[in-house]
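Q: My collaborator sent me two sequences in one message, no labels, and asked for predicted structures for both. Can we handle them in order? The first one she listed is below.
A: Yes, handling them in the order given. First sequence, followed by its structure tokens:
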Amino acid sequence: MNLTMKFNLVLIPVLLVSGVLATYFSFDILEKNAEKEIIDRAEIMMESALAMRSYTVSEIRPLLALQMKREFRPQSVPAYGATQIFETLRATHPEYTYKEATLNPTNPRNRAVDWETDVVNEFVKDPGKMEIFGQRDTPGGRSLYYAKPIAIKKEGCLACHSTVDRAPESMLKLYGEANGFGWKLNEVVGAQIISVPMSVPIAHARQALERFVIVLGVVFVAVLVIVNLMLRLIVTGPVKRMAGLADDISKGGTDTPEFAESGKDEISILGSSFNRMRRSLDRAMKMLEE
């Protein structure tokens, strides 16, 4: 077995083990980065929903005030505007879902389910908490969610939700008088919740990992090729030439040229020692012939 083969038998397992370890630890990092990317995108979507809520209250609701007396317009409700704009966003990001989960909603579709109620109650217990990140189990697998509290910060919101007698007649005809009342200023009544399956960041992480493994494989192959070329040029090539010269000399070749030495590395030092030995051998042979 030659020197190059022995060297590769050591180098290749080292590269393989390094690659496996790098892949193992990289997946966890990539998954966390993908999860952060998903959360960052959810935050932007949440800000868009908040902006739509504010726009609805300040711009849309006043324009519909007269029509609301004759017929209730859901476009005047901040939750409706935020939900609709999110549905538009879902055309390009279908993996995200949005809900304005409310403990006592006017519209039944906004009623909080069990786990959403727990999220809302966390905001109720700690009014200073501005956001919650978490994971939960669903029939479709683990899900990541991001939530912000819905608190009554403007008097205009109480026009429909304080008492039945203040609510528009058109709204009462549509939703009735049983739910959506008794809200108070600065009270947390619900939570905006954006959910996305954990399979999404995991899939993103796996895609990034596949690219990483491909690049890592190319780098390892390049390293293996370059190291073998350098080994041949710097070590095995000169050693083979030196071995060939030594073989010729051992067979009586008196006109064998000296080993071409250059530099100050170990091979050059060995070559210099070889040439000195060859010259000493030539002198000894001449002395014997005389």
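Q: And the one she listed second?
A: Here it is, processed independently of the first:
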Amino acid sequence: MTAIAVLGLGAMGTAIARRLLGAGHELSVWNRTPGRDEELVAAGARRVGSPADAVRRAEVVITMVTDPPALEQVLLGRDGAASAIPREATLIDMSTVGPTAIASVAERLAPVAVLDAPVLGSVPSVESGTLVILVGGERAVFDQRAELLSLLGAPIYVGPSGSGAWLKLVNNAASIATLVALGELLALTDRAGLGIDAVLQSLGAGPLASLVERWRPRLRGEDQSSYFRLALARKDLELVFDEAGREGTELSVVETAATRCDEAIEDGLGDDDFGAIVPFLRQMEDR
């Protein structure tokens, strides 16, 4: 049994906490918005009044928050975790915050070990233990915590600190840019009078086979579930642009995708799943 603190109880943080608690670990939980911990406390988690209180006895601290300012506040704000986290503990940040934020956190929390471990997947992936977890940091620390992370899915060691954060941004940017391209091309095939089943069958026979297979129910309008809000996806693109600027790299295709996301958000789709960009673009041609 490991003493774990989970800081951040949005949909993903709550699902992660629930799975770790179900595996028999000792859990302390905290969230900026009160009331999110009721179900977890009823199941045996310990309620605390601040991030500092949550981590005092922790061997592992998991953060799952919205963005870099939220991570800064949770760790280094008033009653933040950094003031009380044991030197021997490991901080595992599973948020999508980018490598610059991770570097800042790792420097200021030293000698506490820090792993950046953002995830590919959503709440159903947590519940089934099938997340893909991209982990950056010291290899020895990864080896020490891999068994714990395996409760949530498949942890993959991708390199030194910041590597996981980089690859999560790259994955998200590639996914969003591809969906925008697909939405525009489906608008074209709609105009050409081609049936969606024939189009998807054709695309599924080419290099987009994996994406089409995964997204087929959504592309056919059969699945309206929301696992990753479009507004959060757009936030991640802004992180990509910030990091690209530091590296002196232009992301023109991703910038176009961001503009399309902005149009969809202005149309009221910010709280919809980011896959809603596809039907939005298909319908734009009919307006």
